[in-house]
């Protein structure tokens, strides 16, 4: 692994129900880098994020995160240092945004209530809002999902269509978060269909095409 690489996929293949989804994928994410992933619907982008997060395991090959191999197994072995927003964020419908994040924070127990309040403010939500999650608009749900992904200050953040449902202010807030966390040396994998967003944020872009990953020269 190059000295600054924090995540490495080595000859990764993934089959689901005997159908090949990804084939022989190799790539690295370096410290402070935003790596974009593009590709058609159903090409395997979310599958790749699930592999990177340890939520799913490869059929073949190895994934290293800070030189530690991601191993299949129980939840306790999931990497602690990866923040994830994949697909529509799911939270407990009767709890407020704050209480949802607080409940989730208790799994790892590495952040305080003040940290959560600060993160909720960072995504432009009201940390004193006691309304249950089920009353949130789509954009508010997405903002809370972004808050959950970043709240524990992880070294790698995986975002699947993060600006879906965000208004202009939400997109601006998201841009500020990327730039702030990049400066702190955090890395991202960003899956998006929005090419403007990909061009704006990504240092490197790969396209999933025909089960494999191709580095894009020009985006
Ligand atoms: N749990 C599953 N069971 C069966 N097939 C699955 C499962 N998860 C994903 N697939 C299949 O794997 C392929 C890749 O799906 P994936 O969600 O990774 O695509 P994607 O590139 O993220 O698509 P989109 O742009 O529509 O979000 C699809 O053909 C999908 O049907």
TrEMBL record:
GO MF, any single term: ATP binding
Residue ranges of domain ABC transporter in the record: 7-219
Protein name from the UniProt record: ABC transporter ATP-binding protein
Keyword Transferase: no
Keyword DNA damage: no
Keyword terms of this UniProt record: ATP-binding, Nucleotide-binding, Transport
Pfam families: ABC_tran
InterPro entries membership: AAA+_ATPase, ABC_transporter-like_ATP-bd, ABC_transporter-like_CS, ABC_Transporter_VariousFunc, P-loop_NTPase
Domain of life: Bacteria
């Amino acid at each position: 692994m190059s000295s600054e690489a924090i995540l490495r996929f080595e000859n990764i293949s993934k089959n689901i129900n005997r159908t090949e989804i990804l084939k022989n994928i190799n790539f690295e994410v370096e410290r402070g880098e935003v790596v974009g992933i593009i590709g058609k619907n159903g090409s395997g982008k979310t599958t790749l994020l699930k592999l990177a997060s340890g939520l799913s395991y490869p059929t073949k090959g190895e994934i290293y995160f800070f030189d530690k191999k991601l191993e299949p197994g129980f939840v306790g072995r999931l990497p602690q240092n990866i923040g994830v927003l994949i697909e529509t964020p799911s939270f407990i419908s009767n709890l407020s945004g704050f209480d949802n994040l607080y409940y989730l924070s208790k799994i790892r127990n590495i952040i305080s209530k003040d940290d959560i309040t600060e993160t909720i403010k960072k995504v432009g939500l009201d940390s004193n809002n006691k309304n249950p999650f089920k009353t949130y608009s789509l954009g508010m749900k997405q903002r809370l999902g972004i808050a959950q992904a970043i709240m524990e200050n992880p070294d790698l953040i995986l975002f699947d269509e993060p600006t879906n449902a965000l208004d202009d202010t939400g997109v601006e807030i998201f841009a500020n978060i990327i730039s702030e966390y990049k400066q702190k040396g955090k890395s991202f994998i960003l899956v998006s269909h929005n090419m403007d967003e990909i061009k704006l944020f990504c240092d490197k872009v790969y396209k999933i095409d025909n089960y494999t990953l191709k580095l894009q020269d020009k985006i």
